[in-house]
Amino acid sequence: MYGFEYQRPASAADAAAALQGEARFLAGGQSLVQAMRLRLSSSERLVDLGGVGELKGIRRDGDALVIGAMTTHAEVAASAEVRQAIPALAELAGGIGDPMVRNMGTLGGSIANADPAACYPAGVLGLGATVQTNQRTIAADDFFTGLYETALKPGELITAVRFPVPQRAAYVKYKQPASRFALVGVFVAQTAGGVRVAVTGAKGHAYRVPELEAALGSSFTPAAAKGVKLAADGMNSDLHASAEYRAAMISVMAARAVEAALAR
């Protein structure tokens, strides 16, 4: 690990002010710290957000849940508010990594890192969430832009994510057994604006699948999802699964997600 300075501000304003030069925010640290230990990443300063209380918490706001960026996966999974309003989101959070990751990793850290196989990006996209920062709000459809890339500007700090409460939703992933990252993960939601289907693990970043959305908009059934055949073009291919396998599994996972959503 390369050397670095460490700061732990007590407010979001102080955190934003501290992010100057080659500095990075430290949220849960479950990805960043490991990359730094392997010397795959370096920063001259880490700005630890763990002491910023205003970035934590879960609250109902009308027809939406607002979850602070520094709320951990374990807190989302255990929240009675989340389980009542969006049980699919609680289940998604409860299936991330292992207990250490869930107790240290945070919502904001996960989506800012934008790992192509992370679970939260599928939930953010699938629910049509809005990412709130210290500068603006960003629609989920505009947030994930590439491999480990987002629409965040230098120095921009995620403060919370606003999740509209859907009519019904579910998330199902086919996980890599060691890391529990998604080889293919599918989040399906029936919303006031129609059906949304978001996939993680299959391409360089989470994305929506118009073909599945159209099929499920006409018939919200597992059979409709299974009937959609997707091309393997642009899909990830590695030692865990080929592009063709991932393409086939998207429809399978979508069908399982629809079945789970209908069972609620």
Provide an overview of this structure.
The structure is a single chain. By secondary structure, the chain is α+β, with helices and mostly antiparallel strands. Among the domains are: 1-54, Uridine Diphospho-n-acetylenolpyruvylglucosamine Reductase, domain 2 (2-Layer Sandwich); 168-262, CO dehydrogenase flavoprotein, C-terminal domain (Enolase-like, domain 1, 2-Layer Sandwich), CATH 3.30.390. The chain is 34% helix and 25% strand. The protein has helices at 12-18, 32-37, 73-78, 80-85, 87-94, 99-104, 107-113, 120-126, 140-143, 210-218, 222-226, 243-262, and strands at residues 5-7, 23-26, 45-48, 58-61, 64-68, 130-133, 137-139, 144-146, 149-150, 158-164, 168-175, 182-191, 194-200, 207-208. The strands form four sheets. It has a five-stranded antiparallel β-sheet.
Give the SSE layout.
Layout: E1 5-7, H1 12-18, E2 23-26, H2 32-37, E3 45-48, E4 58-61, E5 64-68, H3 73-78, H4 80-85, H5 87-94, H6 99-104, H7 107-113, H8 120-126, E6 130-133, E7 137-139, H9 140-143, E8 144-146, E9 149-150, E10 158-164, E11 168-175, E12 182-191, E13 194-200, E14 207-208, H10 210-218, H11 222-226, H12 243-262
Parallel strand pairs: 1-3, 2-3
Antiparallel strand pairs: 4-5, 5-10, 6-7, 6-10, 8-9, 11-12, 12-13, 13-14
Unreliable residue runs = none
Helix-strand topology string = EHEHEEEHHHHHHEEHEEEEEEEHHH
Let me know the average pLDDT: 92
**DSSP helix fraction:** 25-40%
CATH T-level topology of the domain at 168-262: Enolase-like, domain 1
- Strand proportion, as a percent range, falls in 25-35%
CATH superfamily of the domain at 168-262: CO dehydrogenase flavoprotein, C-terminal domain
The N- and C-terminal alpha carbons lie at a distance of: 47 Å
Neighbour order of strands in the largest sheet: 4-5-10-6-7
Q: What is the number of helices?
A: 12
Rg for CA atoms = 18 Å
What is the strand tally?
14
The CATH class name of the domain at 168-262 reads Alpha Beta
Tertiary shape: globular
Q: Helices and strands: which structural class? A: alpha+beta
Largest sheet: 5 strands, antiparallel
Q: Which architecture of the domain at 168-262 per CATH?
A: 2-Layer Sandwich
